[in-house]
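Example record

One chain of 252 residues, shown exactly as stored in the release files.
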Amino acid sequence: MKRMANLARYVALCKTLRAVVFFHPARPFEEGVIEWLARRHRRKDLGIPSPLYSISPRFQREPFVELTFPDRGIRDFFRQFCRDIPSFFVEGVVLASCYASPLVVVGSGLDEIIERVAVVKVRTKEGFGEEEFGRLLRVAGHSMVDLIEAGSEALGVVSKFVAGKAATEDLEGLLYRREQRALNDLERRFSRLKDDPQGELRLCYLDPVRMAVPLLLSADKEELSRMSLSPLIGLGMGIVCALLLKSPPKGG
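Predicted structure tokens for this chain:
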């Protein structure tokens, strides 16, 4: 009964969620950005990953909602194979994939991790304006609907690798195709956002599968063969489009 209730809540949130809001739990979060997001999205839900939800009483009120994994197998897989990346970061990215919602990274505490794991990055010298950010977030939402489909192929290849029926080259080919898919999405949807190598990181694509592959490749093959992968793990294997917001947008 509880599992059915959780799945029903998950399905409902997939329809009402505007974005997953994310920040470093050990750094002071940008209250101005949080309040701006709340004002801007009064009629849409903003998801907060469970590890961050209790940090501030503000998150107990609308439009914020706590996000949990729709299936424990998703959480367990990424915890096992992303141990070299902070767990709160992994959870935020994977939840964004599960709920097919763009990630809004608040503040600057996560720059170093994002620089290390992002597969596609866009930098600009100018920050976002209020209307521009709203438009980009809507576009990112459309991207996520398409990019979640990448999870099906990923689950198939990873399942074969775990079963000993796929090689390292198959995983590498999967990662290449996913990176190309992210690049194509960027060119198709964000062509007006021009990259400036001297600017600050404003938009990126994150690949949960790429984050898991190094430990997956180094895992004991006999141990892998005993694993049973939930088919729902594919929900967490989409490609995630993220916007970085260090201060309230201009005009906000």
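Notes: The chain has one domain: 2-245.
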